[in-house]
Amino acid sequence: MNTLNRRSLIKGLAASGISFPLIGALHGCSHNSTVKASRVQKVVVIGGGFGGATVAKYLKRFDAEIEVTLIEPKTTYMTCPGSNWYLAGLVDVQSLTHDYTNLIAKHQVRVIHQMATAVDAQSKTVTLENGDVLSYDKLVVSPGIDFKYDAIDGYSKEAAQILPHAWQAGTQTELLAKQIKEMPQGGRFLMVAPPNPYRCAPGPYERISMIAAYFKEHNPRATIMILDPKTKFSKQALFHQGWQELYGEMIEWYGAQDGATVSKIDVANKTVYSDFDTVTADVINVIPAQKAGKIAFTAGLTDATGWCPVNQDTFESSLQKDIYVIGDSAIAGAMPKSGHSASSQGKMCAAAIVSALRDLPMPQTRNVNTCYSLVSKDWGISIVGVYENRDNRIAEIKGAGGVSPMSASLQERKMEADYARAWYKSITMDIWNA
Prior knowledge:
The chain is of the alpha/beta class. The protein is about 30% helix and about 25% strand. Helix 3 runs parallel beside helix 10, helix 3 (about 50-60) packs across helix 11 and helix 7 (about 205-220) runs parallel beside helix 8. Residues about 15-35 have low confidence and may be disordered.
């Protein structure tokens, strides 16, 4: 027989570090809201990234009696945040790679290294690649992103082995780093930037900054061009300021207003076609248009947008009962598709699931996101947002966040760069090293 009361949940929320609004909401709960469960409740989590690993940990932290199983094919996880720093040689692969040892040992999360291949929402089961079938009371799906390879004529999953996207950290990141190091002196690097919405981090424009930093030291006559299907991008003025100050005329950016939407790629000849120009380069980084992870489609969680509509308080799917979607695949209002967003959503989702299983009042959600970018090793910029549910949509709270000022001193840029590195250590420690 399991019991959980309001005090237990508040204690767990307090330890999450983002819980004060939730704690406030839970003050309305009765001190006698102890609920008995007749059997062990089972939660299965698909995906061991920022969202999945966070929700697995915090489910156990909020209610240790719940049986939590995390499904993740990889035994180690290299993060997208920080992967641009690797391209500049600022960090190594090991420092960006984490495992699930402490989720298992400290939090008693059951981790299965398999691919989830199917979800049956009616029978509440998940089928794994090895044929095993797991039952659940609640399912959390956090599969990240997949690519629309057919969005640009000539580009494909196979072409990514020659012109890497490096948008899922690991072998693709190492391939792009190798090509950057081997690029001829005075050569041209070309990025085909993604349309909105896209996973960030890794951010396209931080990536350009980090590659420029590498070229400045090792290949100073190199040039960088960005062909972008968008008319503008986040922190644009700050990036342009940093690029001009640090790298002079090395970087050229062209947007949709210049006709820079790429329509075709000749992979063998490393040539891209757009209304702006036909461009040949020595190294081409193609970041395709994106959609929800494959299992989200298999499970019937996506709508016509290719992403997953969810309840903006609980992250429960709008299409399938008792299935929750967090992270990049979810349509989460104004929140960006970042690792920090996914982790924040994971904590809120865990609280919502525990409340639902234990018949506790549903907490009001508040989410937070911070996006740091390095323009150089000692030049950091950031944008921060705090979010609430407003008219059934996650919306940014005006005045609660902010963006780095254009007028910041070099000392302040250095401080932001240090904050970026501290943020990475803090959030990965919370999720994987717990």
